[in-house]
Write a structure and sequence with these properties.
- By secondary structure, this protein is of the alpha+beta class.
- About 25% of the residues lie in helices and about 25% in strands.
């Protein structure tokens, strides 16, 4: 088996019941949470709407 080409390193910390903060190795931080249809479907009431983790995945994939 070969060595991985790249290993992503991030620390995820809770900053509330529905919010998380990701700290990337580069020093960048992003906040994630819930919003829109997801919050409505699950009857959640986030303190403020934030992008879902999957929103970041889709944005990164789309380049």
């Amino acid at each position: 088996m070969t060595e991985p080409l790249y290993v992503a390193r991030a620390v995820i910390e809770p900053i509330g019941k529905l919010q998380r903060r990701a700290r990337l190795e580069s020093g960048a931080t992003i906040e994630m949470g819930v919003h829109g249809a997801i919050a409505t479907h699950y009857r959640l009431d986030p303190p403020r709407p934030l992008p879902l983790p999957v929103d970041y995945i889709v944005a990164a994939t789309g380049g």
